[in-house]
Amino acid sequence: MEIKLYKNDLPEGFLESLRGSVAIDTETMGLSPYRDRLCLVQFSLGNEECHLVQYDDFSKALNIKRLLADESILKIFHYARFDVMMLFKYLEVMTKNIYCTKIASKLVRTYASSHSLLELCRDLLRCEISKEQTCSDWGNAELTNEQKQYAATDVLYLHKLKEKLDVMLKREGREEIAQACFDFLQTRVKLDLTAGENYDIFSHGC
What we know:
Elements: E1 2-7, E2 21-28, E3 38-44, E4 49-54, H1 62-69, E5 74-77, H2 80-91, E6 98-100, H3 101-108, H4 117-125, H5 145-156, H6 158-171, H7 175-195
Parallel strand pairs: 1-4, 2-5, 5-6
Antiparallel strand pairs: 2-3, 3-4
Helix pairs in contact: 2-7, 3-6, 4-6
């Protein structure tokens, strides 16, 4: 695996190298969009290259903003709800054309008790990934090699997982409802930022 690190934005020409889809993940200082800033965004084209973008100036992320808003490019996430929310909060652009491997897993891996990226890789790809750096300090100016490796791994397998999950979605006849869930994510993100992720407008409560 080759890891490339950039500051604040993807390089010129990156969008032109895309062939229909890109895997994306984020690393933040925590799980609250109101308190914890976006530190790193990771990208993979489905090959053995991973592109990491570290931030200290969000206004410079012009190529990433173009990429997120491009409806012709599919963006593959694991737990897109959080990543899309953080990207919207800090880059001020809504991600278009989303696929979420966590949602797809919950729709078809109903036999499983966990839908984490680690479990998906283990079950569908028969590979082990490490989550040891999950709670490390992503705000450091200099990332460790372990952090870079961890961040890259979070996007390295998403294309392959999508392929496996798509077969299962088709087999179970749940492609349409999966797409409806993916399409709803933009609205879900706005609800999360407006009322908080624990507020459910569909609940029975008063």
